[in-house]
Design goal:
The chain has 166 residues and is an alpha+beta fold.
Length: 166
């Protein structure tokens, strides 16, 4: 059986017998931690030992799930906070006499990163949200509730749907 051809290098325009001879290479062990930087890498070196990655998974999986869950919650809350419903509710509170009397001027979210509590389901016509607001005189909780009674009907708001708790 002929020897296995590992690699050949020949820059001559015509291959000669000398160019067709295979180059013999020996296996090189993987570098140890104190060897310094690896400046060249050969494809035929020994592979590093396989470590048990199950321990790493047990340690990092809860962290990964926590980060994904918190990110999803932040994204959904941002979607609620920037919706037209919240903007329209804040506008209605800013222009209402009760809002101006209780909170003062410059009514906006109470927190730098507002958290919108409740359900905002525009497809089925159910909106019941609560969030913190503040003005120049004080702060409070704003609650807006709206229910669409029929599938194709208008939106009807039960009495006292916009509540301001100081």
């Amino acid at each position: 059986m002929p020897p296995r051809l590992l690699s050949t290098t020949c820059l001559a325009p015509r291959p000669t017998l000398r160019c067709l001879r295979p180059q013999r290479r020996t296996l090189i062990a993987a570098p140890s931690p104190n060897d310094g930087p690896l400046m060249t890498r050969r494809a035929d070196r020994a592979l590093p030992p396989i470590t048990n990655s199950r321990k790493i998974w047990y340690k990092t999986l809860p962290i990964f799930i926590t980060v994904i869950t918190l990110s999803a919650l932040a994204i959904f809350n941002y979607q609620k906070a920037t919706s037209s419903i919240v903007n329209a509710t804040l506008y209605a509170l800013r222009t209402s006499d009760i809002g101006k009397r209780e909170l003062g001027e410059q009514i906006y979210f109470r927190d730098k990163f507002p958290w919108i509590w409740g359900e905002m389901n525009q497809l089925h016509g159910r909106i019941d949200i609560t969030f913190g607001v503040k003005g120049t005189k004080g702060s409070g909780m704003m609650r807006f509730r709206s229910i669409r009674r029929t599938r194709m009907g208008f939106v009807s708001c039960p009495p006292n749907t916009v509540l301001l708790q100081i």
